[in-house]
Design goal:
Order of helices and strands: HHHEEHHHHHHH
Number of helices: 10
Shape: elongated
Number of domains: 2
Distance between the termini: 53 Å
Helix content: over 70%
Largest sheet: 2 strands, antiparallel
CATH topology of the largest domain: Four Helix Bundle (Hemerythrin (Met), subunit A)
Structural class: mainly alpha
CATH class of the largest domain: Mainly Alpha
CATH architecture of the largest domain: Up-down Bundle
Number of strands: 2
Length: 241
């Protein structure tokens, strides 16, 4: 007979699992207060450390808020909280040799889809916000920190056109994970001008309502940016060997 290893859950994991079920199934509603730590200890027959670890885990999941001196309170999970939990894992993946390529492929799929969607669905207000973001990007030429911020904001406007909070959360996470890459790429002379020109082409395609052109413009932009990053990164690696 085959042998199977059975994982034993800790007391805190069991408490967290039960409370999570109560929340997800609606028996504990948003803004409801959880029982006190002492009441939870009695309810589950566990010590204070197990209760506190369970509550901390639920806080990390974005299911409860914990403030000093008050009982834990049920909150609505947000896309931002979900993406924040992925941040540490993603940084580990990016540190692997193949990590940056995987990240590039995921980013391209997301950003290219946003550009295509914008060309098909952007309102006049959306297009106006894109033009404004483009102008701020143009004014930041020569200012490395300012250009990096305006570059990020431009892509943030594209994400917002989808009117989906998960898109916004993904953009925010990508921005954090891209920070070092953007900073390195901008070390190359003329890279800010090239990025600006790519943004111009993306906006023109969106304003003309041409999804194929918007997709192609975004793909060229991302391919160039990643190519610049890889070249500079490889050069730095050789210098430090």
């Amino acid at each position: 007979m085959s042998r199977y290893r059975v994982e034993r859950k800790t007391l805190s994991e069991q408490v967290a699992e039960q409370l999570e079920t109560e929340i997800l199934e609606g028996r504990l509603q948003e803004n409801d207060q959880l029982p006190s730590e002492r009441e939870l200890m009695e309810q589950f027959g566990v010590g204070r450390p197990a209760v506190r670890e369970a509550l901390f885990y639920l806080q990390q999941l974005g299911l409860v808020a914990i403030n000093s001196g008050t009982r834990a309170r049920v909150i609505r999970p947000t896309a931002e909280a979900v993406m924040a939990r992925l941040s540490g894992v993603t940084r580990q993946l990016l540190a692997r040799p193949e990590g940056q390529q995987y990240f590039q492929e995921a980013r391209a799929m997301f950003e290219i889809s946003l550009a295509r969607h914008a060309a098909l669905h952007a309102t006049e207000d959306d297009r106006a916000r894109l033009r404004d973001a483009l102008e701020v990007n143009r004014e930041a030429l020569g200012d490395e920190a300012g250009f990096k911020r305006s570059d990020n904001d431009f892509h943030g406007v594209l994400a917002s056109i989808g009117r989906n909070p998960i898109f916004d959360a993904i953009h925010d996470a990508l921005s954090e994970w891209l920070d070092d890459r953007r900073a390195l790429a901008l070390q190359r002379e003329g890279e800010d001008q090239a990025a600006l020109q790519a943004h111009v082409e993306i906006v023109e395609a969106i304003e003309s309502g041409d999804p194929d052109a918007a997709e192609a413009a975004m793909r060229r932009h991302l391919d160039r940016h990643y190519g610049t990053y890889r070249q500079l990164k490889e050069r730095l690696t050789r210098v430090h060997e």
